[in-house]
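pasting for ref. prot 1 ->
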Amino acid sequence: MDETCSDRPRRLPGRDDDHCRTRHRSGGNGADARHHGDAAPRHQHAYRAGLRPGTGAAGYLAKQLEAAGFAASDVEIIPVGHTAAMAVRYRGTGAGKPILLSGHMDVVEAKRADWTRDPFTLMEENGYLYGRGVADMKTGDVVMIQTLIRLKKEGFKPSHDLILLLSGDEETGMSTTRELAKRYHDAEFLLNADAGGGTLDDNGKPVVYEIQAAEKTYADFEITLTSPGGHSSEPTPDNPIYRLAHDLDKLAAYPFPVMSNPITIASLRAKGEHEQGALGKAMLAFANNPHDAKAAATISADPAYVGQIRTTCVATTIHGGHALNALPQSVSVTVNCRIFPGISVDSVKNTLTQVIADPTATLVALPPAPVESPASPLRPDVLAAVTAAVHARFPNVQVVPGMSNGATDSMHFRTLGVPCFGVDGAFTKANDTFAHGLNEKLPASEVPAELAFWHQLLTTLAK
């Protein structure tokens, strides 16, 4: 889930990219708040060690793994630029190619002054764990490591090597991800704890579980306009701020074409069977007829689901002017696009150029270069194992493929031919975790649930 990328919105549609959940629910520090929650006291140190870039998350985790019996040679910290990645090998019999487990150690920035609680102190309150990264994705990291440690203690001998790959800059440049993909792309498949997962309705009832099998391409563009500038007391008609405002009005009014694929159709049909009201009816209607314009309009009106049926491009940052008393000489805006699978980055750039229709504007793609990755065909063995692990907790929940609106580390492996599947073990309500946002949280119940999920999943797939 990103960002270059993953916004990750969080992982499921309506759960941001995957990964973000955005419906704000403020909360004070209740009397029962505590720094060491009962659900996961063992994870407090790992959480604190990994929240701020460069504070030793990889080193701390390596010590825990070596203390649990992993050979130092099987725990590698890989420096890349200002950060590092981590690779942990759980050795099997070598009967098949390695199975990769994927996560990331970095988080999106959090400003203490903006939060109700200290974002860098794990707290449990009213059944939730609070802190930056608790949903995206410190819990997933700790759960995968705890699962490997448990398997080691149990003497489990997998047929495949299990290789845990934790990147260090998934939320920014993904340089560590590219390095990991270059080193470990000769694999059976990849299981990503930073995508997929279960959805609860507003009453806490499980609705559906999605295996992320595709994700949208992440791309940033910059639109720049310039003028000679001058004294602010002598305004001119070519003020680039005003011209950019007109261009952005045109961009805001443009809806990209409606699209679908078998993965999004299956996902919308499953969700539509449980979603109440007009949105649920529209999901079912669209699943039955993707050319239903009324259904598409209803889905597009919901921020959580518009990305499931369209490419989206939105202005995110703006920079301009150089002095309070001078006419601006330049102004630029960053436009973040999440591009539907099968649509090229160049075609989206051309569309943006046509939409703003401003010959005085310069439009460029920003680095790093976007990565276009294909969908992963859903393997029967992965589907069966995930379904069994989900049904061990919720026997009647439907398990379907899904597409992330955001982007994850999986895209760098998919583009090198590795089938990738997002299989977060948590079930959460739509728009409830605030991943990437203020007061990020996760139900404390999901920690033991994820531990059970991953243990069953790995012992099934790697036996």
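and prot 2 ->
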Amino acid sequence: MRGTLYQSSVSLSVGWPRPPACIPAAELTLPPNGARVTVAGLVLVRQRPGTAKGVIFLTLEDETGSCNVVVWAKLYERYRRAVISGRLLRVTGRIQREQSVVHVVAEHIEDISPMLDDLLDPDFGPAVPSAPCDKPEPGSLS
């Protein structure tokens, strides 16, 4: 996926640092139901509905789209700090498919927010050449 542009909140840079061994959100329909996967992305939404008996719902976004994550109450207690304060998370869990909706039921959550600091590094840049200039060249008829 390196070198692709995607209009989302994560398209801060063309080649943002993808954590190793993560499947892009756009490919979550490929693994079978129950498969163990790892996803990573910016935390867009944290929800803890009163009717959900302590279950937390996270929405993560990478450069290809968004991913729904289910965090059971017991797991939330174990990874509370990452779930509450993480801006960029890596989540390992099992695919759960209900008709056309795909969720990742979390088993392990890691706060990888420090990777966002790489985007502030002046030497960090896209992996592809920049787009050609829109200005016509001198002497051209355009």
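The first strand starts at residue 36 and ends at 47.
The radius of gyration is 18 Å.
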